[in-house]
Each structure stands twice: as C-alpha cells, then as structure tokens.
Amino acid sequence: METNENIKQVVKDIYSGIALQSKEENASSCCGTGGCSTVDYSIFSEDYSKLEGYNPDADLSLGCGIPTQFAGIKKGQTLVDLGSGAGNDCFVARALVGEIGKVIGLDMTEAMINKARSNADKLGFNNVEFRLGDIEKMPIAGNTADVVISNCVLNLVPDKQKAFSEIYRVLKPGAHFCISDVVLKGILPEKLKNAAEMYAGCVSGALQKDDYLNSINQTGFKNIKIHTEKQILIPGDILSNFLSSSEIEVMKNSSFGIFSITVYGEKPSSCCSPDSGCC
Question: Based on the structure, what is the number of domains in the chain?
C-alpha cells in the first residue's frame, strides 16, 4: 500500500499535468488523470456552462457535482474552496458573494494555482485569492469562512479526519460547508484500493459512505444532510488496467457501488472546538 506522502506526490504529479491540458482532454480521461481511456467522463462532471460566473478557461471537467448549488451562498460572505484547481467553482462562487465578498481557493498543486491566478487576472477580479497549501494543514486562519465548498477533492486527501477538522477550524461559528465528493458502498477490490493511479482517479481514496458521514459527525458538525447522490460506473477498459476480466465480472455482480454525493453540514454557533467539551 502506498504511503500518504507517496499518494500526495502522485496526485501532485498527475494534476500538474492536468493543469496544462484542455477541458476536452481531461473529460476524456480517468477523472482527469490522463492515459486511462477515451471514454466520455461526463458521468463524473456536471455542466457549469449556464451558471453565472462560469469561465470556460477555468473548467477542466474535474468535478463530480456543483457544490455552490446547495451552499446557500450570500452577498458579502467569505468563501473557501478546497482543491480549487483552475478556479472553476471559485469564479461561480464569486458571482454569488459579489464584489463585496471574498473567495479563497486552496490547492496543493503549484501548476493549478498558477493557472487559477492567471484566469483571475484575465477576469480582473481583486476579491478572488488562490493559496498554495495542504487541506490537512490549511494556510488559513481559524474562524475565517462563512462557507467552505469542495468538488471531488477530499477523496484525494489521505487523512479525511484531519481534513474535516481543518474545515471545522476555518469556518466561523454558525457557518457551514457544502462538499461534492466520491464515496463507496461495499468492498472495493484490493487491486484498486492499492493503486495510486486509481487514488488520483478519484476512486481508491474514497471512504465508505457511512464512514464518510461518521467522520463529519465526529468532527462536531450538525444538521448534516445529503442533497444529491448519483451512482458512477467505471468503464471496463479502465478497470482492465487493474483487474482481470473475471475480477471485473465479480465486481459488477457484487453489491459494490461508487457514488458522487453533495453533502452539507454546519459548525455549531457557539463552540470552541469539537473535542474541547464546551459544546
């Protein structure tokens, strides 16, 4: 099994390459990782083109939902987007917070940060900021955000509990998150679980749905709800890179499933930290 640091390096390497590709190239690859297949991967991504604030240069077709749709974003708020990529969700969020609000995008891949900053400069935005950093240890002060969003990124983070704890820390009391992500139901085949390429491809790093929701709950979030849930089917030619034909057949006939969900949760309005005993 790959170590956390090895997995992070694979993710950085792959997504650095993605930053230099077009939306069309990313949409025809394994959740954007490249070299897997020529299959149309619209089953992962959603159509942003009709949303206010949409910028095609920032859309690399890497998401698995539209978290801004259910995030209750208001004018003047401060929003943080985790795994902001080329800035797609940030620019849609900016249209919602308006010129008096602020959007902070966080990504651990320097090439993505550079691409996002270039896109923001072209648009002339002065209230959208992109920071290089790790979701497990965010370079963002506590109690900063009114809203945290993320789109198909936390499944790439090795320590999900740390990630949710950091989300909790940067949110203001009474603030909330809305995250689109990939979760599992049933047992992921061991060969997929141990493949770093499939980790970067949004699958083997995903948690069981119940474990994912339990992590959110244990962090201290309240009023947790799932807004959308959609099953994702991985084409056989991608699976054949990791599994034999008989193993693929067993997987297809099992109760195993991969799902994209959009989940919402709130930080209590009067709380120090989830493990301090004060809430």
Answer: 1
Reading the block at residue 20, the tokens are: 């230099």
Residues 207 and 183: beta-carbon distance below 8 Å? yes
Per-residue pLDDT of the chain (279 residues), as tens digits, is: 457 776 676 667 677 777 776 555 555 544 444 444 433 334 456 889 899 999 999 998 888 899 999 999 999 999 999 999 999 999 999 999 999 999 999 999 999 999 999 999 999 999 999 999 999 999 999 999 999 999 989 988 889 999 999 999 999 999 999 999 989 898 877 767 665 555 445 565 788 999 999 999 999 999 999 999 998 877 777 778 778 888 778 888 888 888 999 999 999 997 555 544 444
Check: CB of residue 179 under 8 Å from CB of residue 262. Answer: yes
69 is a domain residue: yes
Which domain range does residue 110 map to?
A: 4-266
* Helix, strand, or coil (residue 204): coil
Both tokens assigned to 174:
């009474």
- Residue (of 73, 66, 108, 70) closest to 88 by Cα position: 66
CB 84 within 8 A of CB 130: yes
Q: Please state the pTM of the whole predicted model.
A: 0.85
Residue 36 structure tokens:
């897997």
* Six-digit token string for 87: 């800035």
Q: Which amino acid appears at position 91 of this protein?
A: F
Residue 149's domain is classified under what CATH number?
3.40.50.150
**Within a domain: residue 42?**
yes
